[in-house]
Amino acid sequence: MRFPGEHWLREHPLLVDLVVAGILMMPSALAALVTHEFVYALDVVMFGAIIFRRTAPVASFGILTLALVAQVVLRDTPQWGDFAFPVGLYAIAAYGPTWARWTGLGIGFVGAVVATDSWGYDQDATGYQLIVFVALAAIVLFSWTLGDRMRTRRAYVAELEERAVQLEREAEQQARIAAAAERARIAREMHDVVAHSLSVIVVQADGALFAARKRPEAATETLATISQTGRESLAEMRRLIGLLRGEENADVRTPMPGGADLPNLVDQVAASGVDVGLAVDGELDRLGSGAGLTVYRVVQEALTNTLKHGGPDVAARVRITVDADGAHVVVDDDGRGVATADDGNGHGIAGMRERIAVHDGTIVAGPRPGGGFRVDARIPLGEGDG
């Protein structure tokens, strides 16, 4: 239980020590004014020294020691100011450096011996002197031990606080890393959706412009395909924006594409005028949501690159093998993508590598022998697959 004002007292230790020292030194100060004896002034000095026991423990204890030596020289009886010594000994043990703590303990025991010998006890009463020494030594040991335990407790509390700050800092770092990873994931999704959809729309729009002069009905069909592609892209964009806004039902409204959606993807690209075929060995339904999305995005990005860089009359073939080890995806085209100038702004292949790396898979993307481009990826099945 804490008393009212304890927090304030902890925040103003110097003021607390000043008030305590002022109360303790008041009798000695009055005695010094009345009797004009220097020994009472020593009491004032000793109590005044404990004001700085926290901020300057070595200097405070040094002043106490010198004042006690002067007292032994001037008077051989106990003084009121002697009560300041246990307080100073506690302070040197609690706040002083290691050498000062042990030096203070040694001075305390020496002081107990000197006080026992100098305070005028009967030299023949050995047993009585022993009792006095033991009592004074016990006060010294108790004061020093109490201060040392307080120092240990303070260090322990400081260590706990530092550990708490470190854990909080680590938690913030983990949160930032997780947020960065999530932003990177969403950025990959945005790139795949926008790049693929716009590539399909551009190719189809170019075809519609060409066909409008000779076959208006073909242009109408192409425009319908463009409209459908745009709507699907908008649906995916809304889902991604929902994720960015933290909407919990974003995935429910528009589910993520997977392996089962690959035929629709191939049909969409074929509608753009690209000769593209799909061959599947195994069951696409065995792919879980994570592996299925990765396979879908790899094929989507590979075909997008074919649309953008393959040139006219390009043909592409998609081969997917699903077995107990995972999914093997190969996308070949016979276009001129290797010879196309790179503007340095593409992130498709880098995005595919990041996706594959998440599943500890492998991917090789580069020119084929004899012309064209190949993307060869292997995605191991995860815990939710199979």
Automatic annotation (TrEMBL):
It is an enzyme of class 2 (transferase). Keywords: ATP-binding, Coiled coil, Kinase, Membrane, Nucleotide-binding, Phosphoprotein, Transferase, Transmembrane, Transmembrane helix, Two-component regulatory system. The chain crosses the membrane at residues 12-34, 55-74, 80-96, 127-146. Its EC number is 2.7.13.3. It holds the Pfam family HisKA_3. It comes from the Bacteria. One of its GO terms (cellular component) is membrane. GO terms for molecular function: ATP binding; phosphorelay sensor kinase activity; protein dimerization activity. Residues 290-383 form the Histidine kinase/HSP90-like ATPase domain. Residues 150-184 form a coiled coil. This is histidine kinase. The lineage of its organism: Bacteria, Bacillati, Actinomycetota, Actinomycetes, Propionibacteriales.
